[in-house]
Amino acid sequence: MTATHILRRPDARLRYEVRGSGPLLVVTGAPMAAADFAPLAEALAAEFTVVTHDPRGISGSVLDDPEQDSTPELRADDLAAILDDLGAESADVFGSSGGAVTGLALVARHPARVRTLVAHEPPCVELLPDAAEQRAAVDDMIETFHRDGLWAAFAKFMGNAGFEQDEAAGPPPSEQMVADSSRFFAHELRGTTRYVPEVEALRAGRVVVGVGAESGQLVTYRTSVALAELLGVTPVEFPGEHGGFMGHPEEFAQVLRKVL
């Protein structure tokens, strides 16, 4: 059974879900919403109390100011507030993509709240030797979004990330998907990719860096390896590529259980 909660924050109304029983595990993405992690959460619910959520401004989490930017720091504070709402002192945290960056910020800002962070392919491009080029590419994507629209920006995003262009194909997007993707380019992408992890804070906690078994061609593989090297840890391989938790939820859950 899944219980849905609405948490009022000073600047937003956050929607989150709780399912299962056992140790508390927060699963977070950005811009991925709770629905994207539902198969993984179901696979873990027999052993964990799994919290999934819609990040601020995405899907059911509504901002008072729709033009407010989403930063890793704001999203980290949201996760701490969700733990407060649940009466939980701490939790294990699994974050993927932008959610992994949220998790890195959570450890830096609220270290006592995180038992183990599993950061799966955080797009921390500032750690790369070609950070300046990556920064320029992100700026170009955002300019393209404002000038030419969502799909032109998305094509550049997929190409720069390292995905084959036909991987962008799929069913017709819903209105919510268009709204969330538009918000991603307008208010989230720059802040997420510009985030610089606080290495000393991360070394003081338990941080596991995850990479996809099929992600070798992706920018996020390179950023994950760079982060792992800074932390002095070996990346843990998860099934699939960047979205492996969606394509292989049962196998993905098995690896995550072992890590935790």
Question: Could you walk me through the main structural features you see in this protein, from its secondary elements to its overall organization?
Answer:
The chain has 260 residues and is α/β, with parallel strands linked by helices. It has a single domain, classed as 3-Layer(aba) Sandwich (Rossmann fold), CATH 3.40.50.1820. 45% of the residues lie in helices and 20% in strands. The protein is built from ten helices and nine strands. It has helices at residues 38-44, 72-86, 98-109, 131-148, 150-161, 175-193, 199-203, 219-231, 244-247, 249-259, and strands spanning 2-9, 12-20, 24-28, 49-53, 62-63, 91-96, 114-120, 207-212, 236-238. Strands 1, 2, 3, 4, 5, 6, 7, 8 and 9 form a nine-stranded mixed β-sheet that branches. Strand 1 (2-9) and strand 2 form a beta hairpin. Helix 2 (72-86) packs across helix 3 (98-109), helix 4 (131-148) packs antiparallel against helix 5 and helix 4 (131-148) packs antiparallel against helix 6 (175-193). The longest helix has 19 residues, at 175-193. It is globular, with a radius of gyration of 17 Å. 45% of the residues are buried. The mean pLDDT is 96. This is N-formylglutamate deformylase. It is an enzyme of class 3 (hydrolase). Pfam families: Abhydrolase_1.
